Amino acid sequence: MEITMELRKFVAPEIITGIDARLMIGRYILHFASKKPMVVTNKDLLSFPWFTDIMEEIHKCAADCCVFNQVTSNPRDYEVMQGAEKFVSEKCDLIIAVGGGSAIDCAKGISIVSANGGSILEYEGVDEINLPGPPLICIPTTSGASADVSQFAIICDSANKVKKAIISKKVVPDLALLDTVPLMTMSPFMTACTGMDALTHAIEAYVSNAHSDLANVHALEAMRLIGENIENAVKTDRKIETMYKMMLGSLHAGLAFSNASLGLVHAMAHSMGGLLDLPHGECNSVLLEHVIRLNFDSIPELFTDVAKSMNIETSGLSQEQVKIRLIEKIRSLRISLGIDGYKEIEQMNDEILDKLSEDAMDDPCIVTNPKNVTKEDIVAIFGSVLKEKCTND
Questions:
Q1: What number of other Cβ atoms are within 10 A of residue 36's Cβ?
Q2: Which site from 15, 76, 235, 252 is most exposed, i.e. has the minimal number of CB atoms within 10 Å?
C-alpha cells in the first residue's frame, strides 16, 4: 500500500456498535443535559418495534420531546427549513436522527440552520459553516449511507433539482449508535442499494487524490467486509451476524470517505438523484463500473489493491486484465443483487443528459477524482448507461 506523507486530517464522532446500541440513547440525553430533544426521522419507521423502543428510552430521560417526521428520500431544502423552524420555535436543544442517509442529512441541515440562520443552500461547499450546531446523535437504520460518521451533508436544491454537498467538520455527529437490530427490517433491495453505496464509498475513498494511510485502512477493510457479506445480506433468511458485518463495512467506508472524499461516481450520482429523484445507492451501483473503466489507467496500482480486497486473483495478470476482472466483478455483483436501475433512467433525453453532465461537473466530489475528467467524459458515461439500457431491452 502506498505511503502518503502529505498533511492529512481525520475526523470522527464517538461511536458505539453492537446489538441494542440504540437503547443507550437515554444515557446520552442525560450526558448532554437535554431538556427537549428533537427526533428527525421519516414516517415509514414509526411503526417498527425498535423505533418504539427508542422513543420509550427518550421519554424516560426527557419528558418533553419533539418529533419531525417530514423527511423524504433525497431530502429537500424546504424540509430542512421546516425542521429548523420547528426546532427553534419549540426551543429544542438536541437532535436525534433516526433513519438512513436522508434523515441524517436532513438532521445535519436542521442543525446548521438552527445555529447559523439563513437558507441551508447558503452553506454549500467546504467549510462554509461558522457556528457549530446543537448536539447531534445518529441512529442509522441502513448499512450504507454512513452519514452518521461523516462530515458530509447532501441536500437537494428543490428549485434547480440538483443535490448540494455541504462539507464541514461542524456536521460530524457527536455520537453514532450503530445497532444491528434496525438493519434486520430493511428490505432486500434497500439492503442491496445501501450496501453498494458503502462499497462505492470505500472504492472512491481509496483511489481519491486526497486519500491517506489512515483512511486507506478503513477503505480496504470496508471492501473486504462488504464484498464477503452483501450477497448473504439480501437473502430472506439472513443472519444478524451478517448484518453486523455489513454495519461494520459501512462504518469503515464512512470513516474513509469522510476524510478522503469521493469522486466521479458520487458527482454523477448526486446529479442523477437530484434531477431524476432516484435512490442514491441505485445511482452509484449503475455508474460504478463505468467510472472504474474511465479512472483505472490513471492509478492501476490502487485499483489492483481494490481488486485484491474484493477477492480477485491478480497475480500474473496484466493491468488490462485486472481492469476487466474488476469491472466484471462489480457488474456481476450488481446484477446478482437485483439492481437493474435502468427503468427510471430511460426518461433521459439529450437536454436532460446535458443538464446531468453540467451538474456533475459542478459537484465538489469531482475535485478528488483520481483523473481529471471533462464534460465529454461524463456525457460518454451517461451515454454508455443509456446504450446498455437499449441493449437490455
A1: 15
A2: 235
pLDDT per position as a tens digit, 339-379: 986 555 555 678 888 999 999 999 999 999 999 999 999 99
- 234: three-class secondary structure by DSSP: coil
Sequential DSSP letters for 118-144: S-GGGG-EES---S--S-EEEEE-SSS
Q: What is the largest CA-CA distance in the chain?
A: 65
Domain holding 155: CATH number?
3.40.50.1970
List helix spans (H) across the chain: 25-31, 49-61, 77-89, 101-116, 180-183, 188-207, 213-233, 240-260, 264-276, 280-295, 300-309, 319-336, 342-345, 350-362, 375-392
> Measuring CA to CA, which residue among 269, 258, 263, 292 is closest to residue 370?
263
pTM over 0.70: yes
d(CA 243, CA 182) in angstroms, rounded, equals 10
Cell numbers at 327, concatenated: 469491472
**Count of alpha carbons within 13 angstroms of residue 309, beta-carbon side:** 24
Domain assignment of residue 160, given as a range: 14-183
39 and 154 fall within a common domain: yes
Closest CA to 234 of 279, 282, 189: 189
pLDDT, tens digit, for every residue of 245-279? 999 999 999 999 999 999 999 999 999 889 888 88
Same domain membership, residue 199 and residue 158: no
* CA 140 centroid distance within chain: 11
Rounded to whole angstroms, the Cα distance separating 321 from 319 reads 5
Using the structure block, give the residue that is written with the C-alpha cell 459542478: 362
Hey, what's the cell of 115?
A: 445555529
CB neighbour class for 338 (10 Å; exposed up to 12, middle 13-18, buried from 19): exposed
Beta bridge partners of residue 154, listed in sequence order: 165
Tell me, yes or no, whether 116 and 172 share the same domain: yes
Give the up-direction half-sphere exposure of residue 137: CA atoms within 13 A in the CB hemisphere: 25
Type of residue numbered 313: E
